[in-house]
Structures are given as structure tokens and as C-alpha cells.
Amino acid sequence: MSGFSIKQPGLLSLLQDRGRYGAHNLGLTTGGPLDFIAFDWANRMLGNDPNATCLEVSFGGLTLEAELDTSFVITGATAPCRLNDEDIEQWQTQSVQAGDKLEIGFATSGTRSYLAVSGGFDIAASFGSSSTVIREKIGGLHGDKLQAGDHLPCSGSRLAVNYCLTEADRPVYGDPARLRLVPGYQQAAFDPAQQWRFFNSEYRLTERCDRMGFRLEGETVHSNIVGMLSEGICHGAIQIPADGQPIVLMNDRQTIGGYPKIGSVIPRDTARLSQLSPGSQVYFEAISIEQAHNIHCLEQARYQRTSLQQC
Amino acid sequence: MKIEIAGQNAFIVYFAEQTSASVSAQIQTAVSNILACMQDCIIDLVPSYASLLVIFDLDSSDHFAVKQMLRNALTDLDSAAAGSGNLVTLPVYYSTESGPDLEVIAELGSISVEDVIAIHQQQEYRVYAIGFAPGFAYLGEVDERIAAPRLATPRQKVPRGAVAIADRQTAVYPAVSPGGWNLIGLCPTRMFDVDKSPSMPVTVGDRIRFAAISREEFIAQGGEL
After folding, report:
1. A293 CA to chain B: closest CA distance, Å?
2. Chain A residues inside the 8 Å CB shell of B135
3. How far apart are CA B27 and CA B167, in angstroms?
4. CB contact under 8 A, A24 and B133
5. What are the pLDDT digits (tens) for B125-137?
6. pLDDT number for residue B140
7. Which of A45, A103, A224, B124 could be bridged to A82 by S-S, CB 3.0 to 4.6 A?
8. By the CB < 8 Å criterion, does B149 face chain A?
């Protein structure tokens, strides 16, 4: 099958669909796009299935060559994008012809860009998903990040009309970022003074931020838990180990672990967090489960209401 | 039993403060009850030592409805035929060649290497949890005489099939990985195989026995040294 060939793989380019669900019983994690918002837009702009496989390009540096005529779009982090050395717009569908060279340069705002093609990349599912988890060597082409010479199969089809998302409707990346969380898990083991400190301090992203977890630094907080049994960890859970520095657990987290957790950041805000670079500032805001549901429903309604513009 | 919030679409159910065979059996029954009556809204279940993480689909149900369904599914956990799990026997080539930490464990317990090997085989273990890595099953509880703390410095590379002990837990490494557990032997059975269905020979709640095999049998069963 024809498709795209990888000339330069970039720092960390991973094939992802919406994630691997229903396999935690085997110890498999979720994977999937760190910023599902930009991912969803990419597929929607091309009229793809919402679970179609896209490329998550972290930090940039990707060059590919098209072997067929098709349409594509690049969403997410802002990066200089070029088609045959001509600058092109992101958040706008475009067409390529066989032999065209497509480049995504290094991100200037945000860190994760998403490249979607018409119909999605044609990647075999493993445990129900094409999502790549390097730690597990599962998904993608060979359970690993893209390498030069890799071939990404897809069936070409060109949109009759191109669409764009107006600037006002695009996400804005940057800090300080508010991370809303639903308190839970061992929250009661953090006394009021510790919680006050946690919710009234700014934290900074360290260099140790990856698809498993984002390690933050700032005011230390401590629970009164000495040792605990390992238990299931959900997406966005904030783990606070003995050093008192929070870790927000992301898509490639281990499915069980034995550190105290104060609650879980809502997915919309982990998406925002994933677009930040080391040194960025974040702060936490506790919300009720009712507020979390309200946000989920309102944002979904807004997404459906937002229309694409012809261009 | 306590049902706590884990996240916007997840609950964690705590069954007890400590783990035990009966707590584990309760969790098994809870898993089958939930799968029987809540399948439509459940995305993932993560049973562990004394808890169960329940992740649900926020687009098909909400927190309050799921909590009510959970309460119903979590009644009568003791009276039901408590899931006793399958009995699975795993062969192990125990030796100082395949288990570089056998002597350390023997020394810690003031027993012989042969005793360590005999004690590890003399009981049934329960699969309390699966996690850490695909196919990694936490088995408990190891006899106190051979319980040994994790290594101060984890190994960079533990071979696939390594049979290991950490505190009162034992496990078989499903793939080559870094690891800080004490290694006592090698098991030729694949604990996780992407191309096989089912991809694991065990599931949470199963009972495991270890049985010693010789070096030759280990090789004949596909083991690699």
C-alpha cells in the first residue's frame, strides 16, 4: 500500500489512535494522544473516523515524502510547516501529490503537533488499538517511535473543499496553566495545611516530563501515609511520593502503583499540560465531580457547535 | 468497603486495609458482578491487592448512576461462589546459574539454597494484581523465611522468565526489563505473548504453583540461558 515515507523522524514521532482501552487487566496502559483536543480536531477536519490513526509529533523535526495524492492537516503545537519548501498553514486542510515533501519544524508554541491524513494511517491494531507505547513495545509500526525509512501506509483521497478552523476557535498554549482536578484517592490523608499549600502554590515543570508522567517542582506536600498497597492508577492522577513533589500521571503511566494520590486532573487540562515545556508554571484548582461533569458536557457541546470554515 | 472518587470517570473501591485470600476472592466476585451487569458503561477494571479501580465511559453514564450500579454490584460478595481461580503450575529452573540471588536469600534467612528452593515451591500463591509491565503478575504471599527486600540498586537488565522475590511477593518477569527484585530461577513459560490468545497464562485471582525442572528440561521447554 502506498502512503508516506519518513525522511527524518523528528525527536519523538508516534502513531496514535484514541488509545487502548479494556487491556488494563493484562497490565497494558492506555497510550493515545497526549493532547486529545488537537488530535480530535485533526481527524474531524478531514472527515475521518474519530479513532483514525494520526501522527503525534513531539517537539518537531519531522520530514516525510508523499507517495500518493491525498489531503492532510496539521493541528496542535505551532511549528513552521512547509510543503516543498513553501510555508503552509496549520489548522487548515491541504493537499499533497506523490513526490511532495512535507516538513514539520521545531515547535514554537506548544510541544505536540498532530498530523492527520485522509482516512487515517492504515496501522494494524494490537489489543484493539494502534497506539504506540514504547515502554511496552506495542502498537505503531514496530512498537517504537518512527525511524528514518519507515513507511506509513494510507489510502489517498483528496477533499473536494479545504476547511480551516478559525483562529478564535483554536486552543492557545502557554503558561501559567490552570490544572483542574477532582480530589479523590488518598486526599483525606493530606491535612488541611498541606492541601492549602498544594492548592495555593505554583509548580514548575521539570525536565523529567514524558508520556508516563509530568514531574513538577515547587512547595513540598506530604500525606500521613507511611506505606500503602499498590492500587489502580487512572489517567491524570497526581501522585505525591516521599519527596513531596507532585507527578501528574499521563497516558503511558503504569496501571498500578503504591504512592499516595491527592486526586486526578481532568483530561482537558492534562491535554493543556502536555503542550507545556520544562520551566512552565502550573497551578491546581480543586473542582467537584459535578463541576467536572459540567465542564465535560459543555466542552463537548461547544466542540459540536463549532463549525469549520471553507477556505 | 469504601467507594472513593479516583477521577472524573473513575472510582476506586477499597475492600479492606490489608490483603488476604478472602479479600482477593471478594474482589474477584466484584469483577465478575460488574462485568455481568455494567458491561455497557465500563471501560477498564484494575483489581489489585485490596482495591478495584473502575473506569467508566463518561459519554454513556455519569458518576451518580455508575455509583448506584456499583453499590448494587458490590452486595453479597461473600455468599456468591467465591472465585477460587484456576490452578496454574509454572516450571522453574532453580540454580545459582539461573538465580544469582539464591545465595543472598539463603544467607538472609540463615537457611540453605536448597531450603530456599524447597520453600518457594511448597505453597500455592494467588495472583493479586497485574501491572508494572504487560503480563507482570504480582503473586503472594511468600514464606517469611525467604522474603527479601528489593536490591538497593536495581539491575539494568533482568532476563525474560526470571523468577523473583521482593518482600513477600514473587513474580515471573514477562520480558527483559530493568528490575530490583531478587532472582532465584528462570521459567520457560511465556507470561505475555502478543501473538497468543489469551496472551497471559494467568489472570488475577488464579492460584499458582512453582515446580522445579532441570537445566535440560528448561532448555527443552524453550528456555534460554
Report:
1. 7
2. 26-27
3. 23
4. no
5. 999 999 989 999 9
6. 92
7. A103
8. no
Three-state DSSP class for residue A266? coil
> Tell me, which fold does domain B87-220 have in CATH?
Cyclophilin (2.40.100)
ipTM reported for the complex, 2 dp = 0.96
Cβ–Cβ < 8 Å for B205, B83: yes
Q: Which residues pair with residue A56 across a beta bridge?
A: A14, A114
Establish if B138 touches chain A: CB-CB under 8 angstroms. Answer: yes
Q: Tell me phi and psi for residue A159, to 5 degrees.
A: -70, 140
- Tell me, yes or no, if A267 comes closer than 8 A to chain B by beta carbon: yes
- Closest to B164 in 3D by CA, of B214, B174, B118, A27: B174
Residue of B4, B5, B8, B51 to mutate for A, most A C-beta atoms under 10 A: B8
Residues A48-65: tens digit of each pLDDT: 999 999 999 999 999 999
Cell numbers describing residue A101: 515533501
Rounded to an integer, the average pLDDT of B14-21 is 92
| B131–A27 C-beta distance less than 8 A | yes
